[in-house]
Amino acid sequence: MTIAAQLAIVSRTQMRLTALAVASFFLAGCNVRCNANLGDGASPTPMAATGSEVWTIEGKAWRIEATYYLARPEGLQFTVETPVEKVPAVEVLALDEAWPLIRHAYLQQLYLRTKLRAFGADGVSATRIGVSLFHREGASTRGMRVAMSLGQIRDRLESEKRKTSI
Hints:
This protein is 36% helix and 35% strand. It has three helices and nine strands, in the order αβββββαββββα.
């Protein structure tokens, strides 16, 4: 093999390694989980999706971009996507902002609009309600996802009821 051929092989290998290093750098800096490790029974693919609509909750109009189901390790999740002016910086603030949507979906039983069937199994209903709060600016999108189990939602509703009856 000539020296030129050996240099070409080394050069191609270095280019591949450099490309992998650059890709790893950008992916490591990404604050969005890309569904690389969803666990057992999880599916990153939305199922039974609906289109855009407007929900009016306590006099406020919420633009809903989509609702759909996700198979998560914790169970089937009914998910609501809504744009926001500013994405909350921490999960606690995101949950507070998403709470009216979670409460509405629960009280109106929107999460029960369909049952999904797995091969050889009965229909499965949602056990969680999640909200994706996102902000789009040009080609860039930032967001935060939060979710609660139906039990957590019931507990929070009971807590609210106790606070208002005092």
